[in-house]
Amino acid sequence: MRAFLHNARQQFVDRWFWIQQVVVTALASAISWQVGDGILKNGGVVAAIVAALTVRSSLHKSTREGLGQILGSSVGAGAALLALHFFGLGLVTVGLTVLISLVAARILHLGEVAAINVPVTALIVIGPGLSQTNASNRLISTIIGAVIAIVASVFAHPKTPAGRTIDRISSLTERCAVLNSQMAEGVADNYSQDRAGRWLARARLLAEEIPSIRNQALEARVFAKWLPAVRSENAERLYLRGVALEHVIIQTRSTSRALFDIRLGGGMDADIKHEIALLLSTVSYALSVSAEDFRFDPYSVTKEPTTAEIRLSAESATTEVVKRAVSLEKSQLARIMTVISSAVIIADSLDQNSPTIKNVPTPEGPASAHVLAKSPLDQAKIWQQRIYQLLPQRVRGYLEK
Fold first, then answer.
1. Helix (H, G, I), strand (E, B) or coil at 126
2. pLDDT digits 0-9 by tens, 149-201
3. H/E segment holding residue 163
4. Is 337 exposed, middle or buried (0-12, 13-18, 19+ CB in 10 A)?
C-alpha cells in the first residue's frame, strides 16, 4: 500500500508543471466566464474561450498572443460587419472574416498558434445573431478573456522568468558538457564515422534550442522592466549569459562537424589525437563547472577559473599540430585548427570577455516574438513611401517643391 501511494504521488510530482498549467488554464477560463457574464449579457462564453486559447507558460507569449488576438479579432470583426453590410450573412462574410483575420495575424507576426486563434476568435465574435451591438459585446468579451489569461499566465509556471532562464541555461550548458565529454572519449578511442554523425546530430539538436534560450532570456528582461522589485541589471546579466551560451552551442556544433570531416578525410595521428582528446575533455570539465556555479550563483561576474586550462590545452594542441603541419593535408590542418579555435571561443564565451558578446548588439529575439514585427510608426512610414511611389511624377514633383 505504501509503495502504491508513493508511486501515485510520484506521478503527480513528475507532472507538476503540466498539472499547474492545466489548473491555471481551467481557473482562468472559469474566472473569465464569471467576469464576462457579470459585465455583459452572455459574454462569458467568448471570454472563457479566449482565456483558454491565450494562457501560456510564458507571460511574454501570453501578452503577445493576447494583444494579437484583440487586434486581429478587431480587424476580423470590422471586416465581417462591412461584408455583412454589402453581402449579408453567409459564405462571403465568413470567408472574408477568416481571410482578413489570417492576413492580420501574418502582418502582426503572431506565430503559428496565435495565427489560428485569431480567425477562431473573430468567428466567435461575429457568430450567430450578428449585429453591430453583438459584435461589440463579443469583442469586449475577447478583451476580458485575453486580459485575465495574461494575468493568469504569471501563475502558470512554478518559477519566475529569471528562474526559468537560469534552469534553461544550466541545463543546456550541461548538455554541451556531456557532448564534449563524449567527443573527447571518442577521439581517444579512434571514433568511427557513424559515431561522429551521432555527435553532429546531437549538436544540431542543441542548436535548435537557441531561439528558446533567447526568448526566455528576453522574457526575463521584459519582466524586470515591468516589476521594480526585480533588478534589471540581473536580468541583463542573464541575457548576456544566454548570448554567451549561444556561442558555446554554435562552437560545439562546429567542433562536431569538424570531427566528422576529419574522420572523413582519414583521421589524425596518435599525438594530435591525444592533444585534441585532452582539449575536449578540458572543455567538458569547464562547461560542467560553469553550469554548476551558474545554478548556485547566476549573477556572478567573476571569470571562470577553468577557462585558463582550456587556453593552455589549446596552446599545447596547436604546438603539436604545427610540428606536423608539413605532413598534414591543408584541409585536415584547417579542420583540426577549427576544433582548437572553437575551444578557445568557448573559453572566451564562458568568461564573457569577448567583444562579440559585449560590443555587438544582439537582436531581441525573432520578429515572431514581438507583438508587432515593426512599430506602427515604422510601418506607417513604409506604407507612406509605397503610396508616394504610386503617385504620378507630376504630383510627386509638386509635393517636393
1. coil
2. 777 776 666 667 777 788 889 989 999 999 999 999 999 988 889 999 999 99
3. helix 161-188
4. middle
DSSP H or E stretch at residue 252: helix 232-264
Spatial contact of 190 and 267, defined as CB atoms under 8 Å apart: yes
CA separation for the pair 105, 97 (Å, rounded)? 12
User: Which cell numbers hold the place of 309?
Assistant: 586550462
From CA 278, how far away is CA 79, in angstroms rounded?
66
Range with the lowest mean pLDDT among 75-79, 284-288, 368-372?
368-372
Cα gap 207→202, rounded to integer Å: 9
DSSP label of 326 = T
CA quadruple 219, 220, 224, 227: dihedral, nearest 10: 70
DSSP string, 327-379: TS-HHHHHHHHHHHHHHHHHHHHHHT--HHHHTSPPPSS-GGGSSSSS-HHHH
CA distance 221 to 314: 35
Mapped onto helix, strand or coil, the DSSP state of residue 109 is coil
